[in-house]
Amino acid sequence: MKEISPLSPERREQLFPKLSDAQIERVAAAGSKRQVEKDTVLINQGEANVPFFVVISGRLDIVQPTDQGELNIVQHQHGEFTGEMNMLTGRRSLVSARMGEAGEVIEVSREAMQQLVQTDVNLSQVLMTAFIFRRLELVAQHAGDVVVIGSPHCSGTLRIKEFLTRNGHPYTYLDLDKDDGVQEMLDKFNVRISEIPVLICRGKTVLKNPSNQQVADCLGLNPKIDETQLRDVIVVGAGPAGLAAAVYAASEGLDVLMIETTAPGGQAGSSSKIENYLGFPTGISGQNLAGRAYAQAQKFGAKMIIARSAKKLSGTRPYKIEIDDGHFVAGKTVVIATGVQYRKLPLDNLSGFEGMGIYFGATNMEAQLCNEEEVIVVGGGNSAGQAAVFLADTAKHVHMLVRSNGLAESMSRYLIRRIEDSPKITLHTCTEISALEGAPHLERVVWRNKNTGASETHPIRHIFMMTGAAPNTQWLNGCVALDDKGFVRTGSDLTEEDLRASDWPLARHPFLLETSRPGVLAVGDVRSGNVKRVASAVGEGSISIHLAHKALAE
Ligand SMILES: Cc1cc2nc3c(=O)[nH]c(=O)nc-3n(C[C@H](O)[C@H](O)[C@H](O)COP(=O)(O)OP(=O)(O)OC[C@H]3O[C@@H](n4cnc5c(N)ncnc54)[C@H](O)[C@@H]3O)c2cc1C
Prior knowledge:
Blueprint: E1 2-3, H1 9-15, H2 21-30, E2 32-36, E3 41-43, E4 52-66, E5 69-76, H3 86-89, E6 96-108, H4 110-119, H5 121-140, E7 146-150, H6 155-166, E8 172-175, H7 182-188, E9 198-201, E10 205-208, H8 212-219, E11 230-236, H9 240-251, E12 256-260, H10 286-299, E13 303-306, E14 310-314, E15 319-323, E16 328-336, E17 340-342, E18 358-359, H11 364-369, E19 374-378, H12 382-392, E20 397-401, H13 413-421, E21 425-428, E22 431-437, E23 444-449, E24 455-458, E25 463-465, E26 469-471, H14 496-501, E27 520-522, H15 534-552
Parallel strand pairs: 1-5, 7-8, 11-12, 11-16, 12-13, 16-27, 18-25, 19-20, 19-25, 20-21
Antiparallel strand pairs: 2-6, 3-6, 4-5, 4-6, 7-9, 9-10, 14-15, 15-16, 17-26, 22-23, 23-24
Bound molecules: flavin-adenine dinucleotide.
């Protein structure tokens, strides 16, 4: 049997703590004790909604079935317990649990365990910490239920890796060009090289160049939607604003459903390091922040549908939201938290290079693709500054291209100083990209100085686009009032004309974050007048639930 990479004693203690006798008693009160024979399987990989087990006596082996036999994850003894983040979400188990020695266990249903986490502060601390650390370790050790076969020269591969990474789902990646035995594996599953990227789910299901939705469905990332259930709050978008709204709504006892196009975290999830968010003096990666917030929302019982987009908002209270898979959900209140997306430069062949040299986020994943190569960062805002500083660590050289004649007006002072101090970053002002060349991967970039008209061609294969943003409000299709740039108007920004056009039915004026529809709130970057920062998104998301309570009471 294979083993995961050895853990230091401190790390083992973090991942697999022992419950005290008093804690075991409290868990026992929420479940039932049972005697189990050696070899009894308590959890099968792929099962959803699995119960929670604490070992009283005997030994419980946690293993992961793989193509080359079982991978031994851990052997639980007295006082140790099963579970990782899937315990809270009810998603399919990534591992199997089998008694290595006969003994006694406490079995607690997932619902009862979730109740325990919400009500017992002391147990919550131990269990939540272990669940989060265990998931991080599975991701770090690539110990998941899915194998991705692809190539760095294929944009679909980057998309799927990004989707799994941003959803915190562990996977094994096999590179067609580098890893031995890939051809053998493709032959075994009857796949042609032209059909990559390929995803092999639990050693059985093979998906050829799947959409994110197909990946989510195959891995069972989404709960079944009960279309008849009227929710208290539907949050559209799971960036910092939407996650904050979901955490506050669920923790205050509201029934909340989130809908998210890709993965929790939004733009913040694509940031390598956020250094100005209160409480994180050494900075925190967007991915880490999003993972923590998502775990918090799950702990309080918020539900999330991922890899699905809201397509239309309609009706009067209760509101109906159409999802792009044809389902509908209904909510007494709605929080619009769909944020913004980066504008794309008007270059004819740009879309063909997305994921093949053109990137819209700068995280470790993208940084690995351009290690020791020259890169370009386009844009003069804080996100561009952060990306340039981050990439300068691993890239050979970073060229920052801005259309204006300096950074002073658009970027925080601390970033400007780091850019000026770095010998590995060159700022090119009054400069814009005029052409992209190469096939299929980007190979050369032509840029032009706007003042002199001079063009230069550089053999650069990677461009990070951080070029201003447009609101994600197309799906609202005129249902709520927007400003002239397409951001959602709220509160006192709404004019009498806006309210008349939306048939505002109440005597009162809209609340602070309320749109031109009663009980429909807008928060974060998508809101007109919002300060585009993580802290303001989180603040607005939290406040919106106070207003949702008021709207629900009407
Ligand atoms: C690279 C980068 C670095 C940054 N660094 C910092 C920083 O250091 N400090 C700071 O304060 N701010 C930073 N920001 C800005 C900050 O990330 C944003 O202000 C913040 O993420 C806004 O949060 P939001 O929830 O309003 O929107 P977003 O983060 O944009 O999230 C919106 C979410 O809605 C989803 N969505 C969109 N349309 C739909 C739909 N129809 N249906 C379902 N879901 C949908 C999107 O997929 C997305 O996940 C950075 C931004 C970037 C891009």
